[in-house]
Amino acid sequence: MYIVEFTLKHTAMPLTVQKKDKESAEATYKEGLAALTSGNPIMLEAACDKMTDKKIAIAVSELAAVQMYEKSGSAGASGRAPGFFALTGGDV
Fold first, then answer.
1. Which InterPro entries match (predicted)?
2. Which of 23, 30, 68, 85 has the largest CB neighbor count within 10 A?
């Protein structure tokens, strides 16, 4: 299972969809990347393979980042979920 994660401007919680195979996840990732670089289309829609009723529509003007990773449990080897951003727990 692969996760495609969309990060929005001014929003801490990313939007995610799960894809069964790498090719499908790669295609969704590339759609997001193309929308980021060109600004087109105005709305980007993505559907989840695991929960077939789950669909998201994103205003491309609000899209800040897109990433793809393989789901390998709830946390990586470091004990944190994959991603660009890390929340700290106090002792910084």
1. UPF0367
2. 68
List Cα–Cα distances, 30 to 6, 43, 77, 87, in angstroms: 12, 15, 27, 27
pTM above 0.85, yes or no: no
Q: What is the DSSP letter of 40?
A: -
Q: Which residue has the tokens 């193309």?
A: 34
Q: 55 has which bridge partners?
A: 47
What are the tens digits of pLDDT across the range 15-55?
Answer: 999 999 999 999 999 999 999 999 888 999 999 998 889 89
Q: How is residue 11 written in tokens?
A: 């929003």
Distance CA 18, CA 2 (A): 6
